[in-house]
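re: that chain from earlier
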Amino acid sequence: MRVSEVYASVQGEGPRTGQTTVFVRFGGCNLRCPGWPCDTQHAIDPKYRKQWTKYEPYELVDHVKQVAEEAGAKLITLTGGEPFLQKNEELEALCHALTGQGYALEAFTNGTIEYPDWAPENVSMIVDWKLPGSGEFSKFTDTRHQNLKALNESSIYHAVKFVCKDEADFHIARSLYLSVPEYHDSLIWYYGKVWDGEISDAELVKLALFWMLPWRLNVQLHNHIWDPQERGR
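^ sequence. v structure.
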């Protein structure tokens, strides 16, 4: 497994914002988001590949447990990059080992890779549904819908996150949400701005109130605590 970094911090996004967690940041991503700079270039750009560490699943379990015990963390967050680029059998072994020892698992994922059958019942997904401002909007639409269907049918919580560069992105997000009414109650829906984007949190809230959207504002807590370019935050 290719891992960029493992560290304890506070969860800055999603349903468990504010909770102590251990981030397992995998190396590699199938998207580049040319519309704005990715805030984890060290986890997606192949030029950083030599900085990534290769683990067997059991080695990574031991490392994650050590970091979690030192921080008192009960939550493990899989992120990247894109976690589901890892070999399925290795990722499954890692997740089953961690949940078997009492850890809760979240995964921040772009939703463009079909989730294996075991994943939606073991890992809470926070799906970043890319909008036009990212430059990756038109790709993998069918796969995203297939993944949402699988998440809708699972027994644990999952979320969809819209990251908006501007007002046009917000309206696309609203259209996407309205196109899938069957998932409105079963999934948790978030919206927020790109860091240093063209729209403010206040403007987004005003739009959400106007359109009466029952979404949750995502403010990227970690970027308000630390420098956005700082690793291990």
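The chain has one domain: 2-225.
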